Amino acid sequence: MSILHRIAESQRAQVARRRRERPLRELKAAIDPGLAPRGGFARALRRAPEGSVHFICEIKRASPTAGVLREPFDAEALARAYAASGASAISVVTEERFFLGTRESLRRVRQAVGQPVLMKDFVIDSYQIVEALALGADAILLIASLLNPSDLKRFIDQTGEFGLECLVEVHDEAELESALGSGAPVVGVNNRDLVNFQVDLATTERLSRLMPADRVLVSESGIRTRDDVLRLEQSPVDAVLIGETLMRAESPAAALGRLMGN
Question: Is 220 a catalytic residue?
Answer without folding.
Answer: yes
